[in-house]
Specification:
The protein has 16 helices and 20 strands. By secondary structure, the protein is of the alpha/beta class. A hairpin with a 2-residue loop joins strand 14 (308-313) and strand 15 (316-318). The N and C termini lie far apart (47 Å).
Protein backbone atom coordinates (compact mmCIF):
# COMPACT_ATOMS: atom_id res chain seq x y z
CA UNK A 1 0.00 0.00 0.00
CA UNK A 2 1.22 3.52 -0.80
CA UNK A 3 2.52 5.37 2.27
CA UNK A 4 0.35 8.36 3.20
CA UNK A 5 1.56 11.82 2.32
CA UNK A 6 -0.40 13.29 5.24
CA UNK A 7 -1.75 11.58 8.37
CA UNK A 8 -3.92 13.17 11.06
CA UNK A 9 -4.95 11.22 14.15
CA UNK A 10 -7.35 12.17 16.98
CA UNK A 11 -7.23 15.86 16.05
CA UNK A 12 -9.16 18.22 18.37
CA UNK A 13 -9.87 21.95 18.16
CA UNK A 14 -12.03 24.05 20.48
CA UNK A 15 -13.19 27.64 19.99
CA UNK A 16 -15.11 29.62 22.63
CA UNK A 17 -18.44 27.86 23.00
CA UNK A 18 -17.85 25.53 20.03
CA UNK A 19 -15.99 22.25 19.57
CA UNK A 20 -14.90 22.57 15.95
CA UNK A 21 -13.08 19.21 15.63
CA UNK A 22 -13.45 16.09 17.79
CA UNK A 23 -10.96 13.21 17.46
CA UNK A 24 -10.71 13.56 13.68
CA UNK A 25 -8.63 11.01 11.73
CA UNK A 26 -7.69 11.72 8.12
CA UNK A 27 -5.17 10.48 5.54
CA UNK A 28 -4.08 11.80 2.17
CA UNK A 29 -2.19 9.65 -0.34
CA UNK A 30 0.23 10.85 -3.02
CA UNK A 31 -1.50 11.34 -6.37
CA UNK A 32 -4.97 11.42 -4.79
CA UNK A 33 -7.86 13.89 -4.90
CA UNK A 34 -9.55 13.45 -1.53
CA UNK A 35 -12.89 15.26 -1.25
CA UNK A 36 -13.65 16.71 2.20
CA UNK A 37 -17.38 17.30 2.60
CA UNK A 38 -19.82 18.39 5.27
CA UNK A 39 -22.36 21.03 6.15
CA UNK A 40 -21.32 24.57 7.00
CA UNK A 41 -19.85 24.45 10.50
CA UNK A 42 -18.95 20.76 10.20
CA UNK A 43 -15.24 21.57 10.61
CA UNK A 44 -13.89 21.42 7.05
CA UNK A 45 -12.32 24.88 6.93
CA UNK A 46 -10.97 24.45 10.46
CA UNK A 47 -9.28 21.21 9.41
CA UNK A 48 -7.58 22.68 6.33
CA UNK A 49 -6.50 25.74 8.32
CA UNK A 50 -4.81 23.42 10.80
CA UNK A 51 -3.10 21.55 7.96
CA UNK A 52 -1.88 24.86 6.50
CA UNK A 53 -0.60 26.12 9.86
CA UNK A 54 -3.14 28.93 10.35
CA UNK A 55 -4.71 27.25 13.41
CA UNK A 56 -2.98 25.07 16.00
CA UNK A 57 -4.82 21.93 17.14
CA UNK A 58 -5.51 21.50 20.85
CA UNK A 59 -4.39 17.88 20.65
CA UNK A 60 -3.73 15.10 18.17
CA UNK A 61 -0.99 13.75 15.91
CA UNK A 62 0.12 15.39 12.66
CA UNK A 63 2.46 13.57 10.25
CA UNK A 64 3.81 14.60 6.83
CA UNK A 65 5.60 11.88 4.83
CA UNK A 66 5.79 9.78 8.01
CA UNK A 67 7.49 12.48 10.11
CA UNK A 68 5.62 13.79 13.15
CA UNK A 69 5.19 17.58 13.12
CA UNK A 70 4.95 19.12 16.60
CA UNK A 71 4.83 22.82 15.65
CA UNK A 72 3.23 24.04 12.44
CA UNK A 73 3.00 27.65 11.25
CA UNK A 74 2.11 29.01 7.78
CA UNK A 75 5.84 29.41 7.05
CA UNK A 76 6.58 25.86 8.22
CA UNK A 77 3.68 24.50 6.15
CA UNK A 78 5.09 26.27 3.10
CA UNK A 79 8.47 24.62 3.71
CA UNK A 80 6.70 21.24 3.87
CA UNK A 81 5.12 21.86 0.47
CA UNK A 82 1.61 22.57 1.80
CA UNK A 83 -0.45 25.29 0.07
CA UNK A 84 -4.04 26.47 0.62
CA UNK A 85 -6.44 28.15 -1.80
CA UNK A 86 -8.78 30.02 0.55
CA UNK A 87 -12.54 30.17 0.07
CA UNK A 88 -12.39 33.85 1.05
CA UNK A 89 -9.75 35.43 -1.17
CA UNK A 90 -6.41 36.37 0.42
CA UNK A 91 -5.41 38.93 -2.19
CA UNK A 92 -4.52 42.64 -2.15
CA UNK A 93 -7.06 44.62 -4.22
CA UNK A 94 -4.77 47.61 -4.89
CA UNK A 95 -1.93 45.49 -6.33
CA UNK A 96 -1.66 44.14 -9.87
CA UNK A 97 -2.41 40.56 -10.91
CA UNK A 98 1.32 39.81 -11.18
CA UNK A 99 2.08 41.36 -7.79
CA UNK A 100 -0.62 39.22 -6.17
CA UNK A 101 0.54 36.00 -7.83
CA UNK A 102 4.15 36.57 -6.69
CA UNK A 103 3.30 38.32 -3.41
CA UNK A 104 6.42 38.18 -1.21
CA UNK A 105 8.30 36.29 -3.91
CA UNK A 106 8.68 38.63 -6.89
CA UNK A 107 11.43 37.53 -9.32
CA UNK A 108 14.66 39.54 -9.18
CA UNK A 109 17.33 40.54 -11.68
CA UNK A 110 21.00 39.72 -11.13
CA UNK A 111 21.37 43.21 -9.62
CA UNK A 112 18.63 42.51 -7.07
CA UNK A 113 15.94 44.73 -8.63
CA UNK A 114 12.42 43.41 -9.27
CA UNK A 115 12.30 41.81 -12.71
CA UNK A 116 8.94 43.19 -13.85
CA UNK A 117 9.06 41.82 -17.43
CA UNK A 118 9.64 38.31 -16.06
CA UNK A 119 6.98 38.71 -13.35
CA UNK A 120 4.38 39.85 -15.89
CA UNK A 121 5.38 37.17 -18.39
CA UNK A 122 5.18 34.34 -15.83
CA UNK A 123 1.92 35.69 -14.34
CA UNK A 124 0.39 35.77 -17.82
CA UNK A 125 1.51 32.16 -18.37
CA UNK A 126 0.11 31.08 -14.98
CA UNK A 127 -3.30 32.52 -15.89
CA UNK A 128 -3.13 30.96 -19.37
CA UNK A 129 -2.65 27.53 -17.78
CA UNK A 130 -6.01 28.07 -16.06
CA UNK A 131 -7.55 28.90 -19.44
CA UNK A 132 -8.02 32.64 -19.01
CA UNK A 133 -6.39 35.71 -20.56
CA UNK A 134 -5.92 38.54 -18.06
CA UNK A 135 -3.52 41.47 -18.36
CA UNK A 136 -1.02 40.86 -15.51
CA UNK A 137 -0.61 44.61 -14.96
CA UNK A 138 -4.32 45.17 -14.16
CA UNK A 139 -5.27 46.06 -10.60
CA UNK A 140 -6.93 43.13 -8.88
CA UNK A 141 -9.95 45.19 -7.78
CA UNK A 142 -10.85 45.82 -11.44
CA UNK A 143 -11.49 42.08 -11.97
CA UNK A 144 -14.70 40.14 -11.44
CA UNK A 145 -15.05 37.79 -8.46
CA UNK A 146 -14.49 34.79 -10.78
CA UNK A 147 -11.29 36.30 -12.21
CA UNK A 148 -10.02 37.06 -8.71
CA UNK A 149 -10.72 33.44 -7.75
CA UNK A 150 -8.52 32.29 -10.65
CA UNK A 151 -5.73 34.67 -9.57
CA UNK A 152 -5.92 33.14 -6.07
CA UNK A 153 -5.53 29.65 -7.58
CA UNK A 154 -2.65 30.74 -9.84
CA UNK A 155 -0.90 32.35 -6.85
CA UNK A 156 -1.01 29.03 -4.99
CA UNK A 157 -0.03 26.81 -7.92
CA UNK A 158 3.11 28.82 -8.74
CA UNK A 159 4.54 27.56 -5.42
CA UNK A 160 4.41 23.99 -6.84
CA UNK A 161 3.03 22.37 -3.66
CA UNK A 162 3.14 18.66 -2.80
CA UNK A 163 -0.05 18.96 -0.71
CA UNK A 164 -2.69 21.24 -2.21
CA UNK A 165 -5.75 22.31 -0.20
CA UNK A 166 -8.64 23.66 -2.28
CA UNK A 167 -11.43 25.27 -0.23
CA UNK A 168 -14.40 25.92 -2.55
CA UNK A 169 -12.18 26.74 -5.57
CA UNK A 170 -15.05 26.75 -8.10
CA UNK A 171 -17.66 28.72 -6.13
CA UNK A 172 -17.38 31.74 -8.47
CA UNK A 173 -16.33 29.99 -11.69
CA UNK A 174 -18.26 29.34 -14.89
CA UNK A 175 -18.72 25.79 -16.18
CA UNK A 176 -15.89 26.23 -18.71
CA UNK A 177 -13.49 27.59 -16.07
CA UNK A 178 -14.48 24.79 -13.70
CA UNK A 179 -13.70 22.11 -16.30
CA UNK A 180 -10.34 23.74 -17.10
CA UNK A 181 -9.46 23.76 -13.38
CA UNK A 182 -10.34 20.06 -13.22
CA UNK A 183 -7.85 19.41 -16.03
CA UNK A 184 -5.16 21.21 -14.02
CA UNK A 185 -6.07 19.21 -10.89
CA UNK A 186 -5.84 15.92 -12.79
CA UNK A 187 -2.42 16.89 -14.15
CA UNK A 188 -1.20 17.68 -10.61
CA UNK A 189 -2.61 14.37 -9.35
CA UNK A 190 -0.75 12.52 -12.10
CA UNK A 191 2.47 14.19 -10.91
CA UNK A 192 1.92 12.77 -7.40
CA UNK A 193 0.48 15.85 -5.71
CA UNK A 194 -1.97 15.06 -2.91
CA UNK A 195 -5.08 17.25 -3.12
CA UNK A 196 -7.77 17.90 -0.50
CA UNK A 197 -10.84 19.24 -2.27
CA UNK A 198 -13.70 20.98 -0.44
CA UNK A 199 -16.85 21.74 -2.40
CA UNK A 200 -20.57 22.22 -1.85
CA UNK A 201 -21.23 21.28 -5.50
CA UNK A 202 -21.88 17.58 -5.00
CA UNK A 203 -22.07 17.02 -8.76
CA UNK A 204 -18.35 17.86 -8.96
CA UNK A 205 -17.26 15.10 -6.61
CA UNK A 206 -17.79 12.19 -9.01
CA UNK A 207 -15.91 14.15 -11.70
CA UNK A 208 -12.73 14.79 -9.72
CA UNK A 209 -12.39 12.80 -6.45
CA UNK A 210 -10.82 9.42 -5.67
CA UNK A 211 -12.04 9.19 -2.07
CA UNK A 212 -14.56 11.10 0.04
CA UNK A 213 -14.45 11.94 3.75
CA UNK A 214 -17.50 13.50 5.41
CA UNK A 215 -17.40 15.60 8.60
CA UNK A 216 -20.49 16.22 10.72
CA UNK A 217 -20.47 18.33 13.89
CA UNK A 218 -16.68 18.24 13.93
CA UNK A 219 -16.39 14.45 13.66
CA UNK A 220 -15.32 12.17 10.84
CA UNK A 221 -18.42 10.10 10.06
CA UNK A 222 -16.74 8.06 7.34
CA UNK A 223 -14.33 7.78 4.42
CA UNK A 224 -15.54 5.96 1.29
CA UNK A 225 -14.20 5.35 -2.23
CA UNK A 226 -15.78 7.43 -4.98
CA UNK A 227 -17.51 4.35 -6.42
CA UNK A 228 -19.69 4.23 -3.27
CA UNK A 229 -20.27 7.98 -3.02
CA UNK A 230 -23.66 8.60 -4.61
CA UNK A 231 -25.21 12.00 -3.91
CA UNK A 232 -27.87 10.35 -1.75
CA UNK A 233 -25.20 8.59 0.33
CA UNK A 234 -23.16 11.79 0.74
CA UNK A 235 -26.18 13.87 1.77
CA UNK A 236 -27.25 11.23 4.32
CA UNK A 237 -23.72 11.21 5.80
CA UNK A 238 -23.62 15.02 5.88
CA UNK A 239 -26.98 15.76 7.48
CA UNK A 240 -27.71 12.46 9.21
CA UNK A 241 -30.88 11.90 7.19
CA UNK A 242 -32.18 11.87 3.64
CA UNK A 243 -32.88 15.38 2.33
CA UNK A 244 -36.32 15.00 0.82
CA UNK A 245 -36.89 18.48 -0.57
CA UNK A 246 -33.98 20.72 -1.55
CA UNK A 247 -36.22 23.31 -3.23
CA UNK A 248 -39.23 23.94 -0.94
CA UNK A 249 -40.96 26.40 -3.28
CA UNK A 250 -44.53 27.25 -2.17
CA UNK A 251 -47.22 28.19 -4.69
CA UNK A 252 -47.80 31.95 -4.37
CA UNK A 253 -50.28 34.12 -6.27
CA UNK A 254 -48.38 36.94 -7.97
CA UNK A 255 -49.27 40.35 -6.63
CA UNK A 256 -48.92 43.93 -7.86
CA UNK A 257 -45.71 45.23 -9.47
CA UNK A 258 -43.13 46.00 -6.76
CA UNK A 259 -40.10 46.88 -8.91
CA UNK A 260 -40.29 48.18 -12.48
CA UNK A 261 -37.03 48.74 -14.40
CA UNK A 262 -37.06 50.66 -17.70
CA UNK A 263 -34.07 51.05 -20.01
CA UNK A 264 -31.45 50.62 -17.27
CA UNK A 265 -27.98 51.37 -18.66
CA UNK A 266 -24.59 51.31 -16.92
CA UNK A 267 -21.64 52.46 -19.01
CA UNK A 268 -19.97 49.43 -20.62
CA UNK A 269 -21.81 46.93 -18.43
CA UNK A 270 -25.60 47.08 -18.82
CA UNK A 271 -27.61 48.12 -21.85
CA UNK A 272 -31.33 48.96 -21.97
CA UNK A 273 -32.42 46.47 -19.27
CA UNK A 274 -36.16 46.40 -18.65
CA UNK A 275 -38.33 44.06 -16.53
CA UNK A 276 -41.05 43.98 -13.86
CA UNK A 277 -40.85 42.14 -10.53
CA UNK A 278 -44.11 41.45 -8.67
CA UNK A 279 -45.01 41.02 -5.02
CA UNK A 280 -44.74 37.37 -3.94
CA UNK A 281 -42.70 36.46 -7.03
CA UNK A 282 -39.28 34.84 -7.25
CA UNK A 283 -37.87 36.13 -10.54
CA UNK A 284 -34.72 34.33 -11.68
CA UNK A 285 -31.85 35.82 -13.66
CA UNK A 286 -29.43 33.55 -15.54
CA UNK A 287 -26.49 34.14 -17.82
CA UNK A 288 -23.00 32.88 -18.52
CA UNK A 289 -20.05 34.55 -16.80
CA UNK A 290 -19.71 38.20 -17.81
CA UNK A 291 -23.30 38.51 -19.02
CA UNK A 292 -23.91 41.39 -16.59
CA UNK A 293 -25.84 39.75 -13.73
CA UNK A 294 -23.52 41.03 -10.97
CA UNK A 295 -23.69 44.58 -12.36
CA UNK A 296 -27.49 44.37 -12.50
CA UNK A 297 -27.67 43.59 -8.78
CA UNK A 298 -25.27 46.40 -7.93
CA UNK A 299 -27.04 48.93 -10.15
CA UNK A 300 -30.46 48.12 -8.66
CA UNK A 301 -29.02 48.77 -5.20
CA UNK A 302 -27.40 52.06 -6.20
CA UNK A 303 -23.81 50.77 -6.17
CA UNK A 304 -23.08 51.54 -9.83
CA UNK A 305 -23.83 54.89 -11.55
CA UNK A 306 -26.71 54.81 -14.00
CA UNK A 307 -26.21 56.38 -17.42
CA UNK A 308 -29.87 56.06 -18.38
CA UNK A 309 -33.09 54.40 -17.37
CA UNK A 310 -35.60 54.57 -14.54
CA UNK A 311 -36.27 52.42 -11.48
CA UNK A 312 -39.80 52.45 -10.04
CA UNK A 313 -40.13 51.07 -6.52
CA UNK A 314 -43.72 50.74 -5.35
CA UNK A 315 -44.70 53.29 -8.03
CA UNK A 316 -42.06 55.84 -6.92
CA UNK A 317 -39.39 56.71 -9.50
CA UNK A 318 -35.66 56.92 -8.68
CA UNK A 319 -33.57 59.48 -10.54
CA UNK A 320 -30.45 58.07 -12.24
CA UNK A 321 -28.43 61.05 -11.03
CA UNK A 322 -29.22 60.65 -7.33
CA UNK A 323 -29.88 56.93 -6.81
CA UNK A 324 -27.78 55.53 -3.94
CA UNK A 325 -27.76 52.56 -1.54
CA UNK A 326 -29.32 54.74 1.18
CA UNK A 327 -32.16 55.64 -1.18
CA UNK A 328 -32.57 51.97 -2.14
CA UNK A 329 -32.78 50.92 1.52
CA UNK A 330 -35.31 53.66 2.31
CA UNK A 331 -37.39 52.47 -0.66
CA UNK A 332 -37.48 48.95 0.81
CA UNK A 333 -34.73 47.14 -1.15
CA UNK A 334 -32.28 44.67 0.36
CA UNK A 335 -29.19 43.11 -1.25
CA UNK A 336 -27.52 39.75 -0.66
CA UNK A 337 -24.20 40.22 -2.48
CA UNK A 338 -22.45 37.27 -4.14
CA UNK A 339 -19.33 37.98 -2.05
CA UNK A 340 -20.30 37.88 1.63
CA UNK A 341 -17.34 40.13 2.47
CA UNK A 342 -19.28 42.94 0.78
CA UNK A 343 -22.33 42.33 3.00
CA UNK A 344 -20.84 41.81 6.46
CA UNK A 345 -18.53 43.58 8.91
CA UNK A 346 -16.65 40.45 10.01
CA UNK A 347 -15.24 41.64 13.33
CA UNK A 348 -18.58 43.02 14.58
CA UNK A 349 -21.03 40.79 16.39
CA UNK A 350 -24.41 39.63 15.10
CA UNK A 351 -26.42 42.60 16.37
CA UNK A 352 -24.53 45.46 14.66
CA UNK A 353 -24.47 43.49 11.40
CA UNK A 354 -28.26 43.12 11.53
CA UNK A 355 -28.93 46.76 12.44
CA UNK A 356 -26.51 48.37 9.98
CA UNK A 357 -29.18 49.39 7.37
CA UNK A 358 -31.24 51.11 10.05
CA UNK A 359 -28.74 53.97 9.86
CA UNK A 360 -30.03 54.84 6.36
CA UNK A 361 -33.24 56.08 8.00
CA UNK A 362 -31.61 58.17 10.73
CA UNK A 363 -29.73 61.42 11.12
CA UNK A 364 -26.09 61.34 12.38
CA UNK A 365 -27.02 62.88 15.76
CA UNK A 366 -29.66 60.27 16.62
CA UNK A 367 -28.85 57.61 19.22
CA UNK A 368 -28.29 54.00 18.24
CA UNK A 369 -31.31 51.76 18.87
CA UNK A 370 -29.47 49.26 21.09
CA UNK A 371 -32.55 47.77 22.77
CA UNK A 372 -34.25 47.25 19.41
CA UNK A 373 -31.01 45.73 18.08
CA UNK A 374 -30.81 43.30 21.01
CA UNK A 375 -34.43 42.23 20.58
CA UNK A 376 -34.03 41.77 16.81
CA UNK A 377 -30.83 39.75 17.28
CA UNK A 378 -32.48 37.31 19.68
CA UNK A 379 -35.60 37.09 17.48
CA UNK A 380 -33.73 36.19 14.30
CA UNK A 381 -31.20 33.88 15.95
CA UNK A 382 -34.24 31.87 17.08
CA UNK A 383 -36.39 32.30 13.95
CA UNK A 384 -33.61 31.48 11.45
CA UNK A 385 -31.90 28.86 13.65
CA UNK A 386 -28.53 30.65 13.55
CA UNK A 387 -25.97 28.26 15.00
CA UNK A 388 -24.31 28.65 17.44
CA UNK A 389 -26.94 30.93 19.02
CA UNK A 390 -24.38 33.42 20.36
CA UNK A 391 -25.41 37.07 19.83
CA UNK A 392 -22.07 38.44 21.03
CA UNK A 393 -19.95 36.29 18.71
CA UNK A 394 -18.15 38.07 15.84
CA UNK A 395 -19.68 37.01 12.52
CA UNK A 396 -16.27 36.03 11.10
CA UNK A 397 -16.46 32.94 13.33
CA UNK A 398 -19.79 31.74 11.95
CA UNK A 399 -19.98 29.29 9.06
CA UNK A 400 -20.89 30.53 5.58
CA UNK A 401 -24.47 29.29 5.82
CA UNK A 402 -25.04 31.04 9.15
CA UNK A 403 -23.41 34.23 7.83
CA UNK A 404 -25.92 34.16 4.98
CA UNK A 405 -28.74 33.82 7.50
CA UNK A 406 -27.40 36.90 9.31
CA UNK A 407 -27.54 38.87 6.04
CA UNK A 408 -31.14 37.72 5.50
CA UNK A 409 -31.98 38.68 9.09
CA UNK A 410 -30.67 42.18 8.37
CA UNK A 411 -33.17 42.78 5.58
CA UNK A 412 -36.01 41.06 7.41
CA UNK A 413 -35.38 43.42 10.33
CA UNK A 414 -35.79 46.46 8.06
CA UNK A 415 -39.05 45.13 6.60
CA UNK A 416 -37.56 45.06 3.07
CA UNK A 417 -40.25 44.22 0.53
CA UNK A 418 -37.86 43.72 -2.40
CA UNK A 419 -34.88 41.39 -2.03
CA UNK A 420 -32.06 41.20 -4.58
CA UNK A 421 -30.27 37.87 -4.12
CA UNK A 422 -27.02 37.63 -6.08
CA UNK A 423 -25.86 33.99 -5.87
CA UNK A 424 -27.50 33.54 -2.43
CA UNK A 425 -26.17 29.98 -1.95
CA UNK A 426 -22.57 30.58 -3.05
CA UNK A 427 -20.22 28.67 -0.76
CA UNK A 428 -22.85 27.04 1.47
CA UNK A 429 -23.69 23.37 1.87
CA UNK A 430 -26.66 21.40 0.63
CA UNK A 431 -28.48 21.48 3.98
CA UNK A 432 -27.97 25.23 4.43
CA UNK A 433 -29.10 25.80 0.82
CA UNK A 434 -32.40 24.07 1.57
CA UNK A 435 -32.81 26.28 4.65
CA UNK A 436 -32.08 29.47 2.66
CA UNK A 437 -34.52 28.42 -0.08
CA UNK A 438 -37.19 27.61 2.53
CA UNK A 439 -36.70 31.08 4.00
CA UNK A 440 -36.97 32.74 0.58
CA UNK A 441 -40.15 30.75 -0.02
CA UNK A 442 -41.64 31.98 3.27
CA UNK A 443 -40.73 35.56 2.42
CA UNK A 444 -42.42 35.20 -0.99
CA UNK A 445 -45.56 33.89 0.76
CA UNK A 446 -45.56 37.09 2.84
CA UNK A 447 -45.48 39.16 -0.34
CA UNK A 448 -41.76 39.94 -0.61
CA UNK A 449 -40.62 40.37 -4.22
CA UNK A 450 -37.39 38.42 -4.82
CA UNK A 451 -34.92 38.80 -7.70
CA UNK A 452 -32.76 35.66 -7.60
CA UNK A 453 -29.57 35.73 -9.66
CA UNK A 454 -27.97 32.29 -9.89
CA UNK A 455 -25.45 30.43 -12.03
CA UNK A 456 -27.00 27.12 -10.95
CA UNK A 457 -29.75 26.02 -13.38
CA UNK A 458 -31.06 23.45 -10.90
CA UNK A 459 -31.67 26.19 -8.30
CA UNK A 460 -33.60 28.35 -10.76
CA UNK A 461 -35.64 25.41 -12.02
CA UNK A 462 -36.50 24.57 -8.42
CA UNK A 463 -37.27 28.06 -7.09
CA UNK A 464 -38.01 30.64 -9.82
CA UNK A 465 -41.52 31.44 -11.07
CA UNK A 466 -39.92 32.64 -14.30
CA UNK A 467 -36.35 33.41 -15.35
CA UNK A 468 -34.81 36.24 -17.37
CA UNK A 469 -31.88 35.40 -19.65
CA UNK A 470 -28.96 37.84 -19.81
CA UNK A 471 -26.29 38.07 -22.49
CA UNK A 472 -23.81 40.87 -23.21
CA UNK A 473 -25.28 43.17 -20.58
CA UNK A 474 -28.90 43.01 -21.69
CA UNK A 475 -31.96 40.78 -21.29
CA UNK A 476 -32.42 38.57 -24.33
CA UNK A 477 -35.28 36.32 -23.29
CA UNK A 478 -37.53 34.89 -20.62
CA UNK A 479 -38.46 31.31 -19.65
CA UNK A 480 -41.59 30.38 -17.73
CA UNK A 481 -41.42 27.91 -14.83
CA UNK A 482 -42.79 25.19 -17.12
CA UNK A 483 -40.01 25.83 -19.66
CA UNK A 484 -37.15 25.85 -17.13
CA UNK A 485 -34.52 23.13 -17.38
CA UNK A 486 -30.73 22.95 -17.30
CA UNK A 487 -30.58 22.47 -21.06
CA UNK A 488 -33.09 25.24 -21.84
CA UNK A 489 -31.23 27.77 -19.70
CA UNK A 490 -27.81 27.00 -21.18
CA UNK A 491 -29.22 27.04 -24.70
CA UNK A 492 -30.89 30.42 -24.17
CA UNK A 493 -27.85 31.97 -22.44
CA UNK A 494 -25.36 30.89 -25.09
Amino acid sequence: MTAPLLELAALNKQFPGVRALADVDFTLLPGEVHALLGENGAGKSTLVKIISGIYRPDSGTFRVRGATISELSPAAAKQLGIALVHQELSLVPALSVAENIFLGNLPRTAAGAIDWPRANREAKQAMAELGVKIDPTRELRSLSVAEQQLVEIAKTLQRQPDILLLDEPTSALSDAERLRLFEVIRALRDRGVGIIYISHHLSEIAMIADRVTVLRDGRNVGTIPIAEASQETIVRMMVGRALSDQFPKPAVTRGAPALVVEGLTVDGRLRDVSFTLHEGEILGVFGLMGAGQEHLARALFGLEPLVAGRIFVNNGAASPNSYSPSQAIRAGLGLIARDRRQSLVPMLTVGPNISLPWLAHRQPWHKLELEREKAATLQFINELDIDPPLPHREVVYFSGGNQQKIVLARWMSTGSRILICDEPTRGIDVGAKAEVFALLGRLAERGTAILMISSEPKELAGMADRTLIMRNGTITGELSRQELSHEALLRAAS
